[in-house]
Amino acid sequence: MGSLLAPKLNLVFKDLDTEIERREKMSISELFDKKGEIYFRKLEMHVVKELLGTNESFVLATGGGTPCYGDTMNSMLNTEDALVIYLRGTVNYLLERLKNEKEKRPLLAHLTTELQLKEWIGIHLFERSQFYNKAHHIISIDSKNVRQIVDEIIEKIILK
Known about the structure:
single chain; 160 residues; mainly alpha; Rossmann fold; two-stranded parallel ribbon; two-stranded parallel sheet
């Protein structure tokens, strides 16, 4: 999504996981295995704050847990000229999207059934909603294609 949005805004696209993998010289899965989730979350928070502290303008794609740890969400919300957009999907939409990506996602890899994955998504959406709902803009993404979502984001930015 961000990789399609950034060029339309004449901005650089950055993916937080890719930034972390480049800095750590290992995949996110390896990072979780070798150093654990707490290390990852602290690093994630540090990298977000470092990126926000630059004078560079960019579109940043974060993971679902990013805004929920430390003061990362407040850092994003309180950075001048930063705009936080929550792309809200229902449990069923996210289930369809994530069920084929479990192996790439350390927090999902251990879930063996679709029901377990659906319950995990529901629990985490509920737990994380207090953070997600602080976003400057919330865009529902169910039943929309990528182009429609990008157009809606651009419309929200223009009306900012």
